[in-house]
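Narrative summary of target 7.
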Amino acid sequence: MKIGNYQISSPYVLAPMAGVTDLPFRKICRRFGAGLAVSEMVNANPELWETEKSQLRLIYEGELSPVSAQIVGYDPKMMAAAAQFSVENGAEIVDINMGCPAKKVCKKAAGSALLQDEALVGDILKAVVAAVDVPVTLKIRTGWDRANKNAVTIAKMAESIGIQALAIHGRTREDRFLGEAEYETIAKVKEAISIPVIANGDIDSLDRAKEVLAVTKADAIMIGRGALGNPWLFRSLIEEKDYQPTLEERYQIVTEHISALHHFYGIEKGIRVARKHILWYLGDREIPQEWRSAMLREKIPEQQLAWIDKIFLDPAIFFQ
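Modeled conformation, tokenized:
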């Protein structure tokens, strides 16, 4: 798959997820074979660009090319400026968020709320494409609600304006993350346009990835929640066989990831962000409740890592 002039190394893309796809996690997923890893969304409001949250989301140091940065907003001029700002900070692809179902995003008429206003969608796409010399991509849902699935209309418009690739989550905004994703709408979009189509939604295994590609004929698939605590899923997809790291390999991955979070965010925030990743890596494996409670209360980096030593090197936990 090509996006603009960029040849994407594999057809497996890490989805942008706020609070998750920071630089440390993107690097790990790229190492396991993700052909592209899209950053957390940056708000198009310039008043927010200097906040710590936005500044951290604009760090791409050491990231494999191409760097894809996502922006979110509702004002065409602001979105154009945000695209330029992202490129100035190192983005090589700009991704427009019109798929986020979160209330705090939609109540500002951004994210998937934009799917209700096709004219505004067109204005935003035109403004962003004209503002930068790098490829612009778009992420959408199938529509605002099940009675108004306009993904095909949006897709045709996007292609005509100059969008270079389109990612589609197989739910409406109304669905949020409830029920199961449907892929028939994505298949219809693929039939309707010639730019790359990236299918997204509930893809958490090699078998599901094969199923989605067969149904949609998409050019690539995008992995979101399926990669949480499971970045080696990308290796399974590339090798076309289930890959599970050994106990030692898993320990090394988790230790490296948590240490990187401490370094990237600083001690206090790094420890806080690391907690959810540790739980994702644990999955449904059982550990003593007192261990879990003590680990989640830990406020010292070295002690948090010591808990990882204790838990992730215990074969009784990971091979129970």
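Residues 5 and 98 are 23 Å apart (CA to CA).
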